[in-house]
Structures
1.
Amino acid sequence: MKNLMMLISILLFTGLAINSSADNNTHSMDHGMHHKMHSIEDGRVSLGLSPAMKQHQLANMRNHVEAVQSIIELLSEGDFNKASHIAYSKLGLTEEMKKMCNSFGNETFKNLGLAFHKSGDTLGDTLKTKDLTKSLSALNTTMTYCVQCHATFRQ
Ligand code: HEC
């Protein structure tokens, strides 16, 4: 019994420690366990997605980060053509991405998503010029949308 209580305290303590260290905002401890039971309130707008949509979006996002990594790798190898192809096909405004962005029912999110994918096409165009400085600048512009959207929205 004593051991069980100890185990529970350790688990609770660890849970709180992880909870507060994962949250750099100032309001972690005062919300305590209550805070942990609900989705994290961090000032971002929730898209209110269904579980299926959440999975779909996260898979999509993992593809985005992989595309960025591939583009950086190809840039380091000087393979601008292949990098350009990846920019168009994985980050550009394809029919699939257009449909995805239109399906969230949030106008600001949609516009940010569409602008992001347009910047992916611009990145594709820029990579074709084989100018490294311009290409990095275009990649930076595209990544500005990643940062901006993540700061504004959550699932
Ligand atoms: C229009 C909005 C938007 C844009 C643009 C965007 N994302 Fe996301 N991304 C999201 C949302 C919303 C989430 C879920 C975040 C949450 O709920 O905390 C997310 C989550 C992620 C995740 C987490 C995936 C997982 O499996 O946990 C990664 C990685 C990611 N995005 C990468 C990127 C990269 C890289 C870019 C740019 C190349 C990008 N995203 C552009 C909205 C966006």
Note: Residues 47, 58, 61-62, 64-65, 68, 109, 112-113, 116, 142-143, 145-146, 149-150, 153-155 surround heme C (CB under 6 Å).
2.
Amino acid sequence: MTGNKGHGPLCHATLAAALIAVAACGGGDSGLGGSEEAPDADMNQASTPGTEAVDPLAGMDPALLPEGVTVAMVEQGRDLFNGGGICYTCHTIEATGGPLAPDLTDDTWINVDGEYLSIIELVKTGVSQPIEHPGAMLPRAGMPLTDEQVEAVAAYAYMLSRL
Ligand code: HEC
């Protein structure tokens, strides 16, 4: 209507100003919330809120637990698997495997007989010469896992194929 030739540049400037304002607000907002999210780095965490939605352990039958293994251990193992133990990076979050590592949810085993002790042993030693995959699995996945943590993550791997 007015034939404003400055329309484009004006909008641009306004947008830029708005972006700066947003950035400024974002920066000054800390402490008002949103800082509650704990990083996943705590390897001893028994249960991570938010993993519930996709929790495969919901259908777990405690009667199938190996001797000496508790539900809490399996849950700790799940959190290690998907966190500090970095197993998910190759085996995937669902543990169904991929190009880098095998499916742990089926009852086909490549490297072990599937018994709890054999899985503990495998996690401790890794797989230096994989049979069906291109790269090695390092001992304890290359992470500083204690024996107790290895047992927990092995318990999780054991139960995955029995859910
Ligand atoms: C760098 C990728 C990688 C990471 C990380 C990794 N794995 Fe593996 N995993 C492999 C490969 C490769 C194999 C051997 C597959 C083969 O022989 O073809 C394997 C094998 C296994 C097996 C034996 C599977 C079978 O069918 O016999 C188990 C159990 C296992 N991994 C558990 C774990 C756990 C638990 C972790 C975390 C502590 C982990 N892995 C981390 C790559 C990985």
Note: Residues 15-35 have pLDDT under 50 and may be disordered.
